[in-house]
Amino acid sequence: MLTVHWGCATDVGRVRRVNEDSLFTSPGLFAVADGMGGHAAGEVASRLVIEGLADLTGLLGPGGPQVEDLLAMVASINDRILATGRDRPDQAGLGTTLSGIAVTSIEGKAHWAVFNVGDSRVYRYSESTLRQLTVDHSAVQELIEAGEITEEDARHHPLRHVVTRSLGTDPAPEPDVALYEAVPGERFLVCSDGLTNELRDTEIAQVLQVSADPQAAAEELVRRANQAGGRDNSTVIVLDLATIDGAPPAEGS
Length: 253
Ligand code: MG
Known about the structure:
The protein is of the alpha+beta class. Helices cover 30% and strands 30% of the residues. Strands 2, 3, 4, 5, 6 and 9 form a 6-stranded antiparallel beta sheet that branches. A 5-stranded antiparallel beta sheet has the order 1-11-10-7-8.
């Protein structure tokens, strides 16, 4: 049995009036969605992601979602968002990021499937080192890769909120998916850009180091994002892999 303990927190922040982020937690799948669009459309889009994940994970077998299941989920949820945009002209153009991590079994061994569309991120914290596992689908990431700006420039760049892949587009976006073998003792962070635009990785790592309890860590990260300005909604899931004892995953807390 693979045992995962997790905690989560989300907050509207200190500037926005609506929290357009949503989060999903289940024993085998953890995800954050950061919605966008006027007239509360972002809130609707990110909620459609969570409802879609809840429906679709209920249909999965005991081995957890396979990579093809994750791809099918993204396509299916994308269709739902497009349909809502067609039915509700006032919410046309609604969209959302979707990033997360799923427990999956490959040849009997527990693995993490890390996936993202957009600029919500997944990090791994292990042996006192924080590593970003996802690559943002964003305009500033493209500028960084082109060598035109630095990561520090990106924090203040006028295009910093522009994502280059999101759900709610036709054709459907292609998520990035990467697989990692699960290792007991490792900790993961799934978060929206409201956290990472306010806190540097060194401060995030410090909180993950000090707060042993995942719920306390999640709440402290959101609190610090607000303390640093809270210019966006911030959403955090912290999950700890406690034990692996054979196959298949299930247990949670
Ligand atoms: Mg955001």
